[in-house]
Design goal:
With 213 residues, the chain is mainly β. It contains 1 helix and 13 strands, in the order αβββββββββββββ. It has a 5-stranded antiparallel sheet, with no helix packed on it. The protein has a 4-stranded antiparallel sheet with strand order 4-2-13-12, with no helix packed on it. The protein starts with a helix and ends with a strand.
């Protein structure tokens, strides 16, 4: 079973339908693309493939919510040998122990922006392995019509006052669109409620070619 087939699970599913055709790839020589078609869907050499991950912005949290959220990149490079990782953290800012949900657990960028990127907490039962490598480099064509994700609840931490819980997420190519880690900006967000305060928190994940940073 290849990696893309492995993304499909048998649980009650969140189905993410094909969201158009997003192309991204480069030339067969160096992976940087041509002047006329920098975002073409041609296969690239695995030696020339490199993407950079960054988080240009994250949402604010209401001042009366007893939590603080943060997100940061902990592995910024995607190559043929491995992918990127981010960490999301939640801090209990109240003076009592609380159950705090992970700021973001898993999902597709297609839920809130363009399709192209999937995120999974490494604790999710359908998460790819931590040593996942992109098999889309030499074959950037879409290989699936939709991605199914198991519907278990998000991860939570029981935190005392000023304690922080951190979760690592793996950055994965979306097999429902053409391209391999298509460059662009992708939005991820979740709804939260604490102490009667409801809010949505999210962040933007940016994918760029290594030679354009």
């Amino acid at each position: 079973m290849n990696r893309r087939q492995g993304l499909l699970s048998l649980g009650v599913a969140l189905s993410i339908t094909l969201a158009g055709c997003v192309s991204e790839s480069g030339s067969t020589d160096d992976g940087n693309g041509s002047d006329d078609d920098p975002n073409g869907d041609r296969a690239v050499s695995t030696d020339g493939f490199e993407r950079q991950i960054s988080i240009p912005d994250a949402d604010d949290i209401p001042s009366n919510a007893p939590v603080e959220f943060d997100v940061q990149v902990v592995e910024e490079t995607v190559t043929a040998d491995g992918t990127g990782f981010i960490e999301v953290s939640a801090t209990n800012t109240s003076d009592t122990e609380k159950q705090i949900w992970s700021p973001y657990y898993k999902g597709s960028s297609s839920a809130d922006s363009e399709a192209g990127i999937l995120l999974y907490s490494l604790t999710a039962p359908d998460s790819p392995e931590e040593d996942y490598t992109p098999d889309c480099i030499e074959n950037p064509k879409a290989t699936d019509e939709y991605v199914e994700m198991t519907d278990e609840g998000p991860l939570s931490h029981t935190l005392g006052p000023n304690e922080t819980g951190t979760d690592r997420l793996i950055v994965v190519d979306d097999p429902t669109v053409e391209g391999c880690f298509p460059t662009g900006e992708y939005r991820f967000k979740n709804a939260h409620e604490y102490a009667g305060t409801e809010f949505t928190w999210g962040f933007t994940l940016r994918i760029t070619n290594a030679d354009t940073n």
